[in-house]
Amino acid sequence: MRIVIISGLSGSGKTIALQAYEDDGFYCIDNLPATLLTEFIISTVDTETLDIAVSIDSRNREFLVKLPDQLKKLDDRDFNYQILFIDAEDEILIKRYKETRRKHPLSSAAVSLPEAIKLERVLLNPLKEQAHRHFETTNKTPHELRRLVRDFIGAGKSNDPVILFESFGYKYGLPRDADFVFDVRCLPNPYWDEQLREFTGLEPAIIEFLQSHEVVTDMIEDIGMMIEKWLPEFSKENRSYITVAIGCTGGKHRSVYISENLAARFKNRATTQIRHRELNQD
To answer: pTM of the prediction?
Structure first.
């Protein structure tokens, strides 16, 4: 049985995540009272329900204080579960609420929307600290979030650790949910060759250019050795899903090439996934 607890800030995309799990065949419950979590999971053990996804958030305000006890009961019974926490910047959450004209569950005549979001962060912070995976949706569309959740669900079907290699461009901002970030802007840049500029790190012309520089190979080796050294320590802490972000200036040449090479390096040691953030936006 796979058990997933989905939580996060109101307006961050929890409903989209829960729908993605439902599409994958999970039995899903939205806004389950935290005090019923253990009882509900135990009741499903002898049924045909194999996988469960439960959403718990600030609508459970009066129950959240009892959630740590519920999680301990699951641990005592050796239930394996994952906590997925979804977040976004306050300004984006406010914008989303204004666009949809929905009421925040913690807002009232005496509590403004910004104050409600701040209170919600305080209430959910203990759960956020225990989460096995964080998704930051500030700059993500619903389609992108749904795809990331599907990738995460697929990774959970394997007992191997999962490493997502994500290329990005510094000029567009840092990935907000990365575990490791490596800056490769010091490497030779094919952008300055007008004949290479329009290609990407997936294409032979850029691959040949970067392969011709020993310093690029050295960078890949050093990053690979660092991940190899610390991957077991992450596994000991039940961190089975790790995001390694590789950044260059525009996110289309060097970072793409290096991410592809690192994914190939680890494909026989872990389940590897690749995301090229700037290429996906084209």
So the answer is: 0.66
